[in-house]
Amino acid sequence: MTDATSTLPGTRTGEAGFGDYVALLKPRVMTLVVFTAFAGLMVAPVSLHPMVAFASILFIALGGGASGALNMWWDADIDAVMRRTRSRPVPSGAVRGDEALALGLALSGIAVVMLGLAANWAAAGLLAFTIFFYAVIYTMWLKRWTPQNIVIGGAAGAFPPMIGWVAATGSVSLESVLMFALIFMWTPPHFWALALFMKSDYADAGVPMLTVTHGRPATRRHIVVYTALLAPLAIGTAFSAIGGPVYLAVAVIMNLRFLQGAVAIARRDDAAAEADNYKVEKAFFRFSLYYLFAHFGALMVDAGLDRFGWGIW
């Protein structure tokens, strides 16, 4: 049987294992960073040598992991309060806070320098700014200060495809901005859906999420508004230089479904949500993950078709 106290804050004893240090890097978040950065690199109109492309993605991923370690170092106090995060390496006692800080800083330096050497210094500079934005602007400031934390802080998660594009081309362009904007506008409804069924965690930790400061009804309305603003941006990207028929079909289907889910959330009240344990909200949150992977996957499919001369437009 598992010891029930093993997930309580500060109850871990003994030396940290390799898995604990991997967990510090937030591997689930890193998966999204790698995928979107790879998409940005693949749809760019410049082909990189496979080794340069591999190294670029590796160091972008390392930078994303460094951001996660710095986030866990700073947020250890609130992570210890929230059920969803109390088993993380630092609040559980598996890894000391100073170790997380040292690892985050070391990996940040390695990632930025090596990306500059492997690809170009424009991409390295953008990666450095992304790490700073996530660790300092979002984690240390916005997250605990304003209910707009996710809206503004969402920029940190939106930079990876732009970094991938800059690694290939050496500069920012409209197409990279469109990929950035897609993630930036997707982030609020994605996280607010989570906040709807995790409100008590954020309230206990003193994090001013929209559900805590304005209540669930206002959050539901915000989800509809941002989803409605996201849809034309996502679909309109199909008619840019990186778009294509596959992306257009995916964008239309996914955004109609996303809007349907947002409206379903807005039509519910707290009593209905509590009665079925936030079934609709949790389904919307899960779908939001598929949403982003589908869009960037479709961009890569269209880019591949174009390179083989099979593109329609």
UniProtKB/TrEMBL annotation:
Keywords associated with the record: Cell membrane, Heme biosynthesis, Membrane, Transferase, Transmembrane, Transmembrane helix
Reaction catalyzed: heme b + (2E,6E)-farnesyl diphosphate + H2O = Fe(II)-heme o + diphosphate
Primary location class: membrane
Topology class, membrane: Multi-pass membrane protein
Enzyme's top EC category: transferase
Entry's EC annotation: 2.5.1.141
Localization in the cell: Cell membrane
Pfam families for the chain: UbiA
Annotated pathway: Porphyrin-containing compound metabolism; heme O biosynthesis; heme O from protoheme: step 1/1
Family designation: Belongs to the UbiA prenyltransferase family. Protoheme IX farnesyltransferase subfamily.
Function: Converts heme B (protoheme IX) to heme O by substitution of the vinyl group on carbon 2 of heme B porphyrin ring with a hydroxyethyl farnesyl side group.
SUBUNIT field: Interacts with CtaA.
Protein name, as recorded: Protoheme IX farnesyltransferase
